[in-house]
């Protein structure tokens, strides 16, 4: 099925360029010029598979638009901006964006990232009658996308959930930086260690009782991350989504 991309950017010339390029590659494109129009489009229940969202828009900026979109949709959101500060990247991820592209960028890079996020979004859920993880504090149900800490529901962005799911499916085993980036973001992101570390930080802030002393997501320095062993109360599928390196030394060169 043809994927539909919603572009929200107040620069008509820039939007027309993106729309023409994406339509050449068989995407259906809907373009709007404000954050409110993007919200209205989603509210009309029309199909949207990914959103390209400019930050610097008048009245309702891209950050506030993203925050409101995340209240109603889990489709991938890519922020497009001329801002290039790490604080802006951090803020974009914190409010639920899946990616961040700094203008000017190559259209081929945009296309690759859109395809990667759509591919991740289409991944089938994990089928098991048991929670993937359950103890006295944390409960994770992958098919139903339900995560609770001390009984309180935890809201995760789509990327945060994919990252947690990849770690949980490989519980007790170190998953390298390369494998996590490839599985969660796609092969075009295998050198983006900075984004991975940021997402690990935010995920810990949400699911760890004490993020400063991680209990669940453990760091294997220079290699990757490991989710703690699954207790007997949870029975996950033993087959990982993307099997980690059996020889960890082979991953050291990409750390």
What does this structure look like?
- This protein is 35% helix and 18% strand.
- By secondary structure, the chain is α/β, with parallel strands linked by helices.
- It has two domains: 4-121, Response regulator (Rossmann fold, 3-Layer(aba) Sandwich), CATH 3.40.50; 133-254, Arc Repressor Mutant, subunit A, CATH 1.10.10.
- Helix 3 links the parallel strand 3 (50-54) and strand 4.
Structural topology:
Blueprint: E1 4-8, H1 12-24, E2 28-32, H2 35-43, E3 50-54, H3 62-69, E4 77-81, H4 86-94, E5 99-102, H5 107-121, E6 133-134, E7 138-141, E8 146-149, E9 152-153, H6 158-169, E10 175-176, H7 177-184, H8 193-207, E11 217-220, E12 224-227
Parallel strand pairs: 1-2, 1-3, 3-4, 4-5
Antiparallel strand pairs: 6-7, 7-8, 8-9, 10-12, 11-12
- Strand percentage, roughly? 15-25%
SSE pattern: EHEHEHEHEHEEEEHEHHEE
Number of helices, counting only DSSP H or I runs of 4 residues or more: 8
The value of Rg in angstroms is: 19 Å
Number of domains: 2
Name the helicity range: 25-40%
């Amino acid at each position: 099925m043809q994927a539909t991309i919603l572009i929200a950017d107040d620069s008509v010339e820039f939007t027309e360029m993106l729309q023409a390029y994406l339509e050449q590659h068989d995407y259906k494109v809907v373009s709007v010029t404000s954050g409110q129009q993007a919200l209205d489009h989603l509210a009309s229940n029309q199909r949207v598979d990914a959103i390209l969202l400019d930050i610097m828009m008048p009245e309702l900026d891209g950050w506030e638009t993203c925050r409101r979109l995340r209240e109603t949709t889990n489709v991938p959101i890519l922020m497009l901006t001329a801002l290039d500060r790490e604080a802006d990247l951090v803020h974009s991820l914190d409010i639920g964006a899946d990616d961040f592209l700094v203008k000017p960028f190559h259209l081929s890079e945009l296309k690759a990232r859109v395809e990667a996020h759509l591919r991740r979004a289409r991944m089938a859920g994990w089928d098991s009658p048991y929670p993937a993880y359950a103890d006295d504090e944390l409960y994770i149900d992958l098919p139903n996308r339900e995560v609770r800490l001390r009984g309180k529901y935890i809201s995760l962005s789509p990327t945060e959930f994919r990252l947690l799911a990849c770690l949980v499916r490989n519980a007790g085993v170190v998953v390298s930086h390369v494998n996590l980036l490839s599985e969660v973001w796609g092969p075009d992101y295998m050198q983006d260690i900075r984004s991975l570390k940021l997402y690990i930080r935010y995920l810990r802030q949400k699911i760890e009782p004490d993020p400063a002393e991680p209990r669940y997501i453990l760091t294997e320095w220079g290699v990757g991350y490991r989710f703690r062993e699954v207790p007997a109360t949870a029975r996950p599928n033993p087959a990982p989504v993307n099997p980690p390196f059996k020889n960890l030394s082979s991953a050291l060169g990409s750390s």
